[in-house]
Each structure stands twice: as structure tokens, then as C-alpha cells.
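Subgroup meeting minutes
Present: P.N., E.W., G.H.
Scribe: E.W.

1. P.N. recapped why we're keeping a running log of single-chain structure predictions: easier to compare across weeks, and new members can see raw inputs and outputs side by side.
2. G.H. added today's entry (187 aa).
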Amino acid sequence: MNEEIIIAGFGGQGVLSLGKILCYAGIVQGKEVTWMPSYGPEMRGGTANVTVIISDERISSPILSKFDTAIILNQQSMDKFEKDVKPGGHLIYDGNGITRHPERTDINIYRVDAAAEAARMETNKTFNMIVLGGFLKVKPIVELQNAVEGLKKSLPERYQHLVPVNEKAIYRGTKIIKKISKARAEA
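Output recorded in log:
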């Protein structure tokens, strides 16, 4: 197994944290991982993305130009990364703020309305964990319990009390993700 992922959105959405938690989960599960963030000088509101590789084998380079999965959390990222999903790959997106929905027919497209669900749960800061749960439902590259362990490892001691609400959000994400379209085989 070798999964190459881009997670992209605005700073403040928990993009980098989502990638880090996914990597910690991979480590807990005995996988090889890379985590390579990219973000502008703005902290909140600027664009941010992270590439994550989780593999059974050693990883030769963390630099990617095509992805097995793109997790897209804003329109700018949709415009930039939709074309970079490998044919037959997966694109998962949150519909909040998306004005042009994905159009490709050679990839699998899923929608997880994590922003709306986090608001319903009255836990806006769990947005990224809802997205993580949705991703792991579609691509179970690590076990959900290991994602919770990754969360515990990534949170500082002073925030450990937030683990239960974030764990609930991960599991909620597995319930609300919806398949929008399936990749059609090219003739």
C-alpha cells in the first residue's frame, strides 16, 4: 500500500493538523510516512496545504505532483489541485464555499459537509476531524482507532480534554460522507 495525498484549504481550517494526525496514525500502525506542509505568510485566511504519504515501503521522496487522493476545503484549492488527482483516484471536498464543483469524470468524487456538521455539533474546531473520518471511510488506509491515537499524540497535554469530542467528530465524518460520482473507465 502506498497512498499519496494532498490536503488543501485555508489557514485556520486545520489542514496541517489533519495531515499530522493522519501521519501519527500511520506511525502507530507501523507504516512509513511523510508530512510536507506548504503555506503562505498569512496565518489564518491564507492558503495552506500539506502532502502526506503513507506506505508499507520506504518512501524515496516527499515531493509529489500527482495524488491518489485530494482533500479539498476551499475553492482556490479546488481550482489548483483537481487536475492533479490521478485517473481513478479520489477527490473529497467540503461543499462550504465551493462555487465550482469538481467536473472530472475519471476520478471518484465524494462530498463531506464537515463545516455544516461541525456547526450542528456546536464544535466548529472539529471540522478537520469530521473530514478525516470521511476520508478514512472512503480510504481506510489506517484504522479509525489509530487515528484517535494519532490525535492524542498530536495534541499538547493542555488540550487532551478535547480528545473525546474530536473522536466523536471522526466517527461522525464516517456517517455523513456521500459519493457524488464514480470514475468512468476510459474507452
